[in-house]
């Protein structure tokens, strides 16, 4: 089978899944096995098809005569869509395996049939978004994706916060979709001089030379439309609401790959459809990327909810990807194809990497949630003893996202840095200021990301269990019944099942592999910058073979992940040998309690205290409400019995940007609502006056 | 204002009648139009509900005769069918249905108004002037015999709407609606020598069915609100 057939076959499998799934609605367990095996199979096929398409520089389109008359569906598999198909397919393969274990916990508590159906639809939407070759089918797939993910977020719809989050997501997604629709409208119109409707195919748009005004309008609309989906600040508000409440497998997909479809859209519209752009577009993207990256990670550090932290971290990573794209656009418009290719490669590589490690982290968080029924990190701790597998895998995710070699996060963020550092002075004073500033901001972001994930891992898995009990567990978690002392099986007693574990293991392995062989990956995706910008970096990047990564020039910078891996392994091995060569080298003793003697589980570093220094420094960016209240039972102010400490850190954007809009729209609707009098005569008068006014106009 | 289409859509009069006939028929038609307008004002003035029914029946009769004459003048035969249909439906069937409804539901015999009658009359006069003003450019260009009735037709439509606005009882609103329909019908015959037969048959059927639906709704409204006063429907409004 050719690549295209593989991909189409995978979509057909999903479509047939939609038919099969309702038949098994009565056998929920069987349903889970069957449907998620189907999605896993189709994801593998899609990923394979996509990867082959990139490797073979495959480019072919088909026209399927379905849909509205005269509007057939155009599909095209080219390297760009192939790359994104690989990203989507790979992660959804892992997540599908994970889902078998994760969703089983819902069996008997609520029906999962609709979850499975929307999961399939969600995958169909994402696959077809990247395959679409005309604006019409693109938007339809985009909407299928948005609507099905809305229902996935709504899965546990009895909680108010879930409904609120899902609604917010739907609103932002649709505002974005309107902008995208307008952008395509402009491009389709400009392609035919606003005379026909044949310009709606991407081919027609590709062949059109847009005038500067129309191109700018189309680009800005598309950028902001896709930015709303990607969670670029200030359009990110839905992300930290929707991700925590969605089932974890869904959050993994939404964060890992759905956001990437927006990145795909930005690249497709800018580099492919419009093709020729002034440098300041790149500056806009770069600035949004920088703000998003820095603010995203700062917000992430402040969070106590582990999934919310991960959601904000996705915002940050989208920022990093946008930085790469912005740089690529700037360099491309200044005719520096090699640097531009480097920056674009970095962005694409980071897209792939982020899908892997963020998927892994969300799956890990889901495993923790599954075991403890808790999202609040303040109530976790010490889980490394109870969930050793999850802990190690989550740690791998943390190491990758913190950009530590030899894992994949490092490779792509290092490339982004190289794009900054190798940049020569440009003929624009603004850019000469922005690029060094950007480099420092990225450095700060990466450091903060490391701090953030030290917190995420440390508070969750290290120390002692902090939590109390939870009154109404959806999962029958042992921890919910009063702490982990009662867990049977002792060590490892909370570990999740093998489906979830193996999915996480696979993802973690791919994180490592992607990090260790960057040259091979760059070789593989090199066709993309070749097609979009007209230059490739594989020749210089792989100048010294697969062992050494040398972007542009080896005398400037080089990195060898395999050697780092070997050194890391050697050091670990050495330490292990040194420690364990004699049994007596490791002592286990009670904690040193400073002579206090009554040390409790709550006397630990916690999430709020960990982030306190950063909160002090960057406090002006947040709206912080902190109050300390002491209780004096004896009335004597010298002997407080207990202290209450309340901390509320909120996103400033909500109050500054969204609340006024929301309030204004409610105010306007109230005013407009006054038109509804409930009296027929009034309504008749409305129509009467309208008729008379229209007649006057038409005369 | 759509003047070019006038000739395209109107069925061509095959053989024009003799000139004297034409003039005479035009005169009669104008008189009938004036009578229709008069009945429309009568509907606005009438305070008793049976009076309303009679006036409505008269309006239908004038409309029917006028349609017949237009049909004779223009030699468009299907207008005779329309004329008979109008006669049957609007002079006999609909008034009868409404009559039965009024008796069955023991509706208050007095018409309840929202705006008092002299004011309504003044607004009506203004509307008539407005419609003459509106149709002036059409009348200038049109070559049909019936061109002068177009303004009257438009005025009848507006007066019917005005009646719906200023009455409180659902039955009177229906009469206003039907009189509006009369005006539309007159407009169709006077502006273009009538619509195609199919359309007119459809419209007639619609009116009949509408009358039945209104009847059913009256009963529903009355069981829900204990009155046919449409103001009580304000209860349906969503409160904040």
Question: Which structural traits does this protein have?
Answer:
heterodimer; A: 699 residues; mainly alpha; two-stranded antiparallel sheet; 26 helices; 4 strands; B: 240 residues; 8 helices; globular; disordered N terminus
In brief:
The complex is a heterodimer of chains A (699) and B (240). Chain A is mostly helical and 699 residues long. Chain A is 66% helix and 4% strand.
> What is the strand content of chain B?
under 5%
Radius of gyration of chain A equals 27 Å
Name the poorly predicted regions of chain A: 469-490
Number of strands of chain A: 4
Report on this structure.
The complex is a heterodimer of chains A (699) and B (240). Residues 469-490 of chain A have low confidence and may be disordered. By secondary structure, chain A is mostly helical. In chain A, helix 2 (28-55) packs antiparallel against helix 3 (79-104), helix 3 (79-104) packs parallel to helix 13 (337-372) and helix 13 (337-372) packs antiparallel against helix 16. Chain A has helices spanning 3-20, 28-55, 79-104, 113-131, 135-153, 160-191, 202-207, 212-230, 238-245, 248-274, 279-302, 306-333, 337-372, 383-386, 388-401, 408-421, 429-461, 498-516, 518-525, 527-532, 538-541, 561-580, 607-610, 612-617, 652-673, 680-698, and strands spanning 60-64, 73-77, 622-631, 642-651. Chain A has 3 domains: 1-196 and 229-275, no CATH class; 278-468 and 477-559, no CATH class; 615-698, no CATH class. Chain B has 240 residues and is mostly helical. Chain B has one domain. Chain B is 76% helix and 0% strand. In chain B, helix 3 runs antiparallel to helix 4. The N and C termini of chain B lie far apart (44 Å). The interface between A and B is medium-sized, with 17 and 23 residues.
């Amino acid at each position: 089978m050719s690549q295209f057939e593989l991909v189409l076959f995978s979509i057909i499998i999903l479509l047939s899944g939609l038919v099969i799934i309702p038949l098994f609605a009565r056998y929920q367990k069987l349903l889970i096995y069957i449907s998620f095996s189907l999605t896993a199979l189709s994801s593998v096929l899609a990923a394979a098809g996509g990867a082959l398409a990139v490797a073979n520089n495959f480019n072919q389109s088909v026209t399927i005569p379905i849909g509205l008359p005269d509007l057939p569906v155009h599909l095209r598999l080219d390297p760009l869509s192939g790359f994104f198909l690989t990203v989507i397919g790979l992660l959804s393969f892992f997540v599908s395996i994970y889902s078998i274990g994760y969703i089983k916990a819902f069996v008997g508590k609520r029906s999962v049939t609709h979850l499975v159906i929307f999961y399939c639809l969600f995958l169909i939407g994402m696959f077809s978004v990247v395959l679409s070759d005309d604006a019409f089918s693109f938007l339809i797939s985009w909407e299928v994706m948005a609507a099905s993910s809305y229902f996935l977020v709504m899965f546990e719809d009895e909680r108010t916060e879930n409904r609120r989050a899902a609604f917010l997501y739907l609103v932002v997604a649709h505002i974005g979709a309107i902008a995208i629709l307008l952008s395509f409208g402009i491009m389709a119109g400009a392609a035919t001089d606003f005379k026909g409707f044949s310009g709606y195919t991407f081919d027609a748009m590709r062949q059109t030379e847009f005038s500067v005004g129309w191109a700018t309008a189309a680009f800005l609309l598309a950028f902001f439309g896709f930015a709303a989906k990607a969670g670029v600040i200030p359009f990110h508000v839905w992300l930290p609401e929707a991700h925590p409440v969605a089932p974890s497998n869904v959050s993994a997909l939404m964060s890992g790959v759905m956001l990437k479809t927006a990145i795909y859209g930005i690249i497709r519209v800018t580099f492919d459809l419009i093709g020729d752009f002034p440098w300041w577009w790149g500056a806009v993207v770069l600035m949004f990327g920088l703000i998003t990256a820095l603010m995203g990670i700062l917000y992430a550090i402040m969070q106590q909810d582990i999934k919310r932290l991960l959601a904000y971290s996705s915002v940050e990573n989208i920022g990093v990807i946008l930085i790469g794209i912005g740089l690529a656009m700037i360099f491309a418009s200044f005719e520096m194809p090699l640097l531009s290719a480097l920056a674009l490669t970095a962005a694409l590589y980071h897209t792939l990497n982020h899908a892997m490690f963020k998927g892994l982290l969300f799956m890990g968080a889901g495993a923790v949630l599954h075991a403890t029924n808790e999202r609040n990190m303040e109530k976790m701790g010490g889980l490394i003893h109870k969930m050793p597998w999850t802990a190690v895998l989550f740690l791998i995710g943390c190491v990758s996202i913190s950009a530590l070699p030899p894992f994949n996060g490092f490779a792509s963020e290092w490339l982004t840095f190289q794009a900054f550092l190798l940049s020569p002075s440009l003929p624009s004073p603004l850019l000469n200021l922005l690029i060094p500033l950007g480099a420092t901001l990225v450095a700060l972001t990466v450091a903060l990301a490391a701090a953030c994930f030290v917190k995420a891992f440390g508070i969750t898995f290290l120390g002692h269990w902090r939590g109390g009990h939870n009154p109404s567990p959806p999962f029958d978690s042992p921890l919910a019944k009063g702490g982990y002392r009662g867990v049977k099986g002792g060590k490892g007693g909370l570990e999740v099942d093998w489906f979830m574990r193996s999915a996480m293991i696979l993802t973690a392995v791919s994180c490592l592999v992607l990090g260790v062989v960057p040259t091979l990956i760059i070789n593989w995706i090199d066709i993309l910058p070749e097609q979009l910008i007209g230059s490739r970096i594989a020749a210089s990047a792989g100048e010294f073979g697969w062992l050494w990564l040398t972007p542009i020039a080896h005398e400037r910078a080089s990195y060898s992940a395999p050697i780092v891996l070997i050194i890391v392994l050697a050091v670990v091995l050495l330490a292990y040998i040194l420690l364990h060569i004699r049994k007596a080298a490791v002592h286990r003793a009670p904690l040193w309690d400073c002579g206090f003697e009554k040390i409790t589980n709550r006397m630990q570093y916690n999430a709020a205290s960990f982030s306190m220094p950063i909160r002090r420094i960057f406090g002006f960016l947040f709206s912080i409400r902190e109050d300390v209240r002491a209780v004096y039972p004896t009335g004597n102010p010298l002997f407080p019995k207990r202290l209450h400490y309340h901390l509320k850190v909120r996103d400033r954007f909500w109050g500054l940007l969204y609340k006024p809009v929301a309030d204004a729209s409610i105010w306007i609707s109230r005013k407009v609502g006054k038109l509804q009098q409930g009296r027929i005569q009034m309504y008749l008068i409305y129509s009467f006056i309208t008729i008379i006014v229209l007649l006057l106009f038409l005369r | 204002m759509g003047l070019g289409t006038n000739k395209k859509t109107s069925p061509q009069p095959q053989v024009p009648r003799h000139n004297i006939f034409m003039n005479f028929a035009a005169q009669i038609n104008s008189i009938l139009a004036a009578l229709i307008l008069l009945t429309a004002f009568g509907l606005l003035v009438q305070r008793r509900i049976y009076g309303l029914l009679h006036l409505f029946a008269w309006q239908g009769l004038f409309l029917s005769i006028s349609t017949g004459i237009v049909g004779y003048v223009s030699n468009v035969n299907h207008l005779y069918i329309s004329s008979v249909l109008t006669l049957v439906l609007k002079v006999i069937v609909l008034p009868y249905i409404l009559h039965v409804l009024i008796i069955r539901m023991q509706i208050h015999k007095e018409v309840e108004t929202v705006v008092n009658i002299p004011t309504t009359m003044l607004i009506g006069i203004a509307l008539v002037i407005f419609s003459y003003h509106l149709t002036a450019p059409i009348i200038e260009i049109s070559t049909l015999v019936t061109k002068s009735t177009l303004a009257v037709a438009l005025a009848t439509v507006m007066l019917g709407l005005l009646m719906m606005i200023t009455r409180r009882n659902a039955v009177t609103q229906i009469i206003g609606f039907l009189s509006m329909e009369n005006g539309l019908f007159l407009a169709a015959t006077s502006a273009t020598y009538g619509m195609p037969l199919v359309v007119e048959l459809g419209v007639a059927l619609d009116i009949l069915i509408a009358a039945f639906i209104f009847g059913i709704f009256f009963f529903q409204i009355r069981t829900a609100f204990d009155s046919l006063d449409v103001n009580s429907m304000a209860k349906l409004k969503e409160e904040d």
